[in-house]
Amino acid sequence: xxxxxxxxxxxxxxxxxxxxxxxxxxxxxxxxxxxxxxxxxxxxxxxxxxxxxxxxxxxxxxxxxxxxxxxxxxxxxxxxxxxxxxxxxxxxxxxxxxxxxxxxxxxxxxxxxxxxxxxxxxxxxxxxxxxxxxxxxxxxxxxxxxxxxxxxxxxxxxxxxxxxxxxxxxxxxxxxxxxxxxxxxxxxxxxxxxxxxxxxxxxxxxxxxxxxxxxxxxxxxxxxxxxxxxxxxxxxxxxxxxxxxxxxxxxxxxxxxxxxxxxxxxxxxxxxxxxxxxxxxxxxxxxxxxxxxxxxxxxxxxxxxxxxxxxxxxxxxxxxxxxxxxxxxxxxxxxxxxxxxxxxxxxxxxxxxxxxxxxxxxxxxxxxxxxxxxxxxxxxxxxxxxxxxxxxxxxxxxxxxxxxxxxxxxxxxxxxxxxxxxxxxxxxxxxxxxxxxxxxxxxxxxxxxxxxxx
Length: 454
Ligand SMILES: NC(=O)c1ccc[n+]([C@@H]2O[C@H](COP(=O)([O-])OP(=O)(O)OC[C@H]3O[C@@H](n4cnc5c(N)ncnc54)[C@H](O)[C@@H]3O)[C@@H](O)[C@H]2O)c1
Hints:
By secondary structure, this protein is an alpha/beta fold. The chain has 2 domains: 7-163 and 369-385 and 433-445, Rossmann fold (3-Layer(aba) Sandwich), CATH 3.40.50.720; 164-196 and 240-351, 2-Layer Sandwich (Dihydrodipicolinate Reductase, domain 2), CATH 3.30.360.10. α5 packs parallel to α6 (139-151), α7 packs across α9 and α9 (244-260) packs across α11 (387-403). The protein is built from 12 helices and 15 strands. Nicotinamide-adenine-dinucleotide is lined by residues 44-50, 69-72, 75, 92, 109-112, 114, 132-133, 159-161, 215-216, 218, 231-233, 248.
């Protein structure tokens, strides 16, 4: 490494070399990484999935865990015990600004409502980011994060680790090879229930001493702490923090059809569910989207999602032979010349079975999604779920989450201007108002590229 170039400049330069000039936005391979020291990572949210993200990133031989941040001091201590050399923080803004040049890349594994604030803070400090799924809580935030990543030419990856598994990569190949012809419909489902149909919560209990409730709330509206309702995990069910079952499992399950069919933005989305309560996401949803056609689909493509007790749909309802057992989570691609059933994290099954009995599956290998990101940060290879793909995928998905506040109504979508054109009220859910004092507004205003993406 040129001694006159600081380590930070080198990593930034390295990451800049990973992307093509603005306009094409694909990662490009840097010629040599031999002299680079370890990638020093900082982790925001180290409990739950964050603990698993930390282990997976740290398992790369070129990673040194330098910073750990969590609003729960018990969880933070647990992570510190495994990485005693790391500095610890409860506020990610402080960690990123105080650690400055002594960290190279940031992993974000907080609840959904904090993804944008933490990721934007990291990216505006010039750090490559691995951010959990769904990329953001709001449609607008996904668009902004994609723009900021592009503008700063940063290596990014959304945390859909199963995207890099052979079963999903093979399914993408089979669809793109035309094994079932052009696809007209995709049915997808999860029998999980990350909804809550009950009333608002009573009580104003002080949060436990180990939890910084104010920082946990972050950009979201202030409210009293209630044990067991938000921290940990259950925030998924609550509209201000999570994105329901569609945002949680839909990202994984939607990913393969979205990637394989090269879908763009939906024309419209419509949800069938109970009326909104203002508290939780509905416990049962059927969400329909229409997408413009692509080279792998018919003129338009309909994607239909079922969750909670509405999932899975009946085999005959989706055109499969009566008696076919559908998995609890998965998707079905309906093509002109056959169907492909893709159970969640399992091998695809082709229908009619007799027609495909001698079908030879393409050979593809598993990849490590985390190591792919680390390698790309070090200038080696590219990521497969950069924000250029994760952004539009999440935007599309979140439009369906917005639609669950307007049951039975089609939300017509103007993607260029990021607007629902026929229900003005829905637009306040595309970009929410943040809690005053959290400074995310300042971060967003600091990005000059507030323009729609075509
Ligand atoms: N890719 C996957 O397979 C997968 C699986 C589970 C969860 N997830 C995603 O991971 C994220 C976290 O989910 P979870 O189930 O681990 O939630 P969780 O509530 O169990 O854990 C979140 C962790 O983040 C910490 N935290 C919360 N706010 C914070 C803040 N402002 N700063 C620092 N730390 C903060 C919490 O204390 C906790 O340790 C979500 O976005 C979820 O969708 C992904």
